[in-house]
Amino acid sequence: MKLLLSGYYGFGNAGDEAVLAAILTHLSDRFNQPRFTVASGDPAATSQMHSCASQKYLLDTIKRDDFKTLAANIKKADLFISGGGSLLQDVTSLRNVAYHCGLLRLAQFKRTPSMMYAQGVGPLNHPLSQKLVRMATAKTSAITVRDNASKVLLQSIGIKSPIQVTADPVWGLEADGEKSSTFQKESVWCVSLRSWPGDEENTSRKRVAATLAALRDLAMRRGAVLRFLPMQAKVDDALLASLGVLPGEWITTAGIHPAKIMAQTANCDLMIAMRLHALIFAASQKVPCVAINYDPKVAALAEILRIPLLEGTECSQSDKLGAAIEQAKSPQLDTLENLKQAARRNAEIAGHCKK
Fold first, then answer.
1. 250 and 300 share a domain?
2. Contact at 8 Å (CB) between 115 and 141?
3. Dihedrals phi, psi of 353, to nearest 5 degrees
4. Residue 92: what pLDDT?
5. SS3 of 31, please?
6. What is the C-alpha to C-alpha distance for residues 38 and 325, in angstroms, rounded to an integer?
C-alpha cells in the first residue's frame, strides 16, 4: 500500500510534526506494512525524526515544492492524503489554499483516490479561497475534519460532499516517556506563546510582552514556576529570547520527536497556551489547561474540552488570568477517550478510500 502525505511538515513546528507522527502510526496500524511518501519542507529532517527500525512502515520523503516529483508520486500512490492541520485557511496567505487545493485536484486528475484527513478549516475569507476549496472537494473520496466548526464552514461555502467530524490525529498519539516522580515544591505552569497573527511585529511583541508580564506577576504571587514551550522552533524561542526569557526556562523542542515533547508536558501542573497542539499535548496527559484565543481553532478546542478561554485583550489582565487559572480542571476522562477513538477513526475511513 503506497500512501502520499501532504501537510505542513518539515518546518520545525512541533504540532504539525505531531500530526504527522500520529497519522503514520494510525495508518500503519490500519494497513499491512504501508509505504509512505511525505512531502516536506525539509525531507532530511522529516526522515530523521520519523524513521526508526521499530516502526511498521517504510518512509520516503520528497520536497514539497518539487512539483514534477510530487506529480509522479501522486500518480503511483494508492491514496493521497491532505492533512491534517490547518491547511485550508487564507489568514497567512491565499497561496496556502491554492497549494493544498491544487494537490487535491492533481490527485483527482491522476485518478488517485484522495482524502482530506482531520483538517481544521478556516478562516476562508477570500471568495477565491472558497471557490478553490469547493473545486478541490468535489471529487474527494473522503472528508474528515477535527471539529464541528470546520464542518459548518465547509457547508456554508457550498460543500455538498459528506463531511465527517472526527478529531485531531494528535489525540491518538502516545507520549514517549513517563511522568517524573520527583517532588516539586512549587507548582509548574507551562506556557506556550506565539506572535499575534495580523499585527505588525512591534505591536505583536508588545501584546506578548504584556501577557508575559502578567503571567510572571501572577506566578510570583502564587508561588508558581513558569516553563515555556516554544512549539515553533526558531520562531517562538526567538520571540521568548527577545522578551528576556532565559534558555533554562524553556523546554527544548527543536529536532525533538513530538511524543517526547508531549511526555514533558505531563510534568506540569497547568498549561496556558495560544498554540493549539500545546493544549492537546497537555490535555491528553490530563493536565488542566487555559486557552488564549488567537484563532477559531483554539476556540473550537476550548469548547470541546470545556476549558477557560481568554480573549486577546484579557490574557494580559491579572484578574482575568487569575480567574481562568482558578477555573482550570483536568479534562474529563470520557472526553479524552472519545477524542482518542475519533482520532483513530480517520485511519479507518482512509481504509475505504484505496484503489
1. yes
2. yes
3. -100, -5
4. 78
5. coil
6. 40
